[in-house]
Amino acid sequence: MTSQHDPVAGSAIPSQDTEPPGTEPQGTDWTTTPVTADLVRGALELEFTEHGVLPHRLPARARAQCSDGQLAMVEAQPSGVRLVFRTRATAVELDTLRTKMAYQGAPPRPDGVYDLLVDGRLAGQAGVTGGNVLLVDMTTGSVENRPGPVGTVRFPGLPDRMKNVEIWLPYNEITQLVALRTDAPVEAAEEDGRVWLHHGSSISHGSDAASPTTTWPALAASLGGVALINLGLGGSALLDPFTARALRDTPADLISVKIGINLVNTDVMRLRAFTPAVHGFLDTIREGHPTVPLLVVSPVLCPIHEDTPGPSAPDFSNLSEGKIRFLAAGDPAERAAGKLTLNVIRDELARVVKQRSADDPNLHYLDGRELYGEADFAELPLPDQLHPDAATHRRMGDRFGALAFGAGRPFAAERA
């Protein structure tokens, strides 16, 4: 058994073995527990498929209102979704059918990581083999689906006592839950305390974080002692009305929305449409959560789009080495015609929140550059010019924990 660095606690955590289904240790008396809603946290809906259970982060009604393939993929990638239960089991197995992305002409993408937490502490990490592969040709946009078999992730050697167990699913692989096996019975855990509902772009989704519990929202939730529902949707934080309705209809004690980078890098609207769209998005959330603390977060620093509009254009010159960089394809002069840049968006978001907060004392604003700004970019540059790396996720999580959950801050416990 090898070991790898624990990105949460800085200690050596065993890397668990992965084997095909049906290779259970001899003599183990296994209990198979159906995967039901009371064992799943962080998903808005469960779809029962021919293989098992597919967690969704948007409800069916929302999915039916948009045919975009990017949205369909990312909402089914279970960022922040985890199985949570109590058990005396010393061994846990989870059969899953993953769907992994691959890119024509590029080296294989890293496998997704499963994090196992015991009583809130990281106790193991693993991945699965097999599964489906979506092969994308980024030059043509074509997608080929290559089916594969179910795989098993195994966590042996757990402490022999009653405990809370959490299995956090990979944020970057669509994951169908096929079977949960343990060597002792499983029962549902108590409901979490305060629930934090967050929406944002691929940076909130996880981008290049080391593992599912080290995306910046997961780290911040741990620091704040809250239960996370992560509606970070890579490439899809576009002020869509169906996303606002999903936020409106999801029970939560705290809500944050991180708005900006996807509106610029997809170049979907101008300033004239942006301002009423923000108002409408917030109005819809407030229909279901009239007094819940609501934090509007503007974009983190992204130099290529600070004053240059989108769209973002991929640079494939180093694709064979597994590297993609992004360029800003807009013209700064187009700001005069209402094209959006990150600075334009920050100014307008600050103005909108100030205007609305006169009648809504539970509405707050956070400049994203307090999470990642110029000094951070100098030390920890964005590898592809858009997305942070694992170290930056940790920094952003720490800072959001202090800026949102610290004493006197919008999500502080004393405000509950």
Counting helices, strands and paired strands, the structural category is alpha+beta
Tally the helices: what do you get?
A: 10
Main pleated-sheet profile: 7 strands, mixed
Q: What is the CA-atom radius of gyration, in angstroms?
A: 21 Å
Task: Please give the number of β-strands.
Answer: 24
Beta-strand residue fraction = 25-35%
Task: Please give a handful of descriptors for the protein shown.
alpha+beta; disordered N terminus; 416 residues; seven-stranded mixed beta sheet
Descriptive overview:
- The chain has helices at 60-63, 69-75, 202-205, 216-224, 241-249, 261-265, 271-288, 342-357, 374-379, 390-405; strands spanning 3-5, 12-14, 18-19, 31-33, 40-41, 45-48, 53-56, 82-87, 92-103, 114-118, 121-126, 132-136, 143-146, 151-155, 163-168, 174-182, 186-188, 195-200, 227-232, 254-258, 294-297, 312-315, 325-328, 363-366.
- The chain is α+β, with helices and mostly antiparallel strands.
- The strands form 6 sheets. Strands 3, 4, 9, 12, 13, 14 and 16 form a 7-stranded mixed β-sheet that branches. Strands 5, 8, 10, 11, 15 and 17 form a 6-stranded antiparallel β-sheet that branches.
